[in-house]
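We store sequence with structure; for instance:
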Amino acid sequence: MNTVRMLSAAVLAVLAGVLVAPAAQGEPAATTQPEVLAEIPHDPDAFTQGLELADSVLYEGTGLAGQSQLRTLDPATGQVDRAEPIPGDYFGEGITVVGDRIWQLTYQDGVAVQWDRATMTPVREVPLAGEGWGLCYDGQRLVRSDGTDRLRFHDPGDMGELGGVDVTRDGAPVTGLNELECVEGRVWANVWPTDTIVRIDPGDGAVDLVVDAAALRERGIPPSAQVLNGIAHVGGDEFLVTGKDWPTMFRVRLG
């Protein structure tokens, strides 16, 4: 092999190496803990499935068949101002406010219920394929979880499905996505059956922050209480969080 051929072969080998080299991995998602700013009473019999603050009113959706409700609460005191039963004895799940309406998912009943926000009365029911877990509104579309590693996007007008994204943490699927909160281009999600919250980029599904909230249980949460489930954005990096049958709601700083 002459010198020119040797050089050509060397160049080709280098280029081949570049082409087949694995893509660089991103930095692992950072992990943090919530900073507790206040403790607020919460109904210990509320099987919390959805939590959202809108115009100084805290909305809560609760679950269990025959017991599910849509509620309004005072966010400062935790007092329940109004509680309406979900129609059909459905098993209620996540909720979100969209203008003058509220959408509430059902677990395995195959429908989503739309409520009139002012009167707290059901307006209609629409078919929902698959299970309903968490729900939030990013200003353009609804984002739904179903207990898997997938976030599904829906039309806020009629719940028509618009696509979705699979969620990963450091390249691995994150399953058990539960109650959701959409905040400034990110989706915060409780991860069932843990006391962990993840922050997700809905563009590519990557988790970019993990919140280990297990220490909240040391603040008077009984062992019988179920998992953390309920995230309501207050403003900036402040949130209200609680859990299923938790006697306390926490105002926390995340991030």
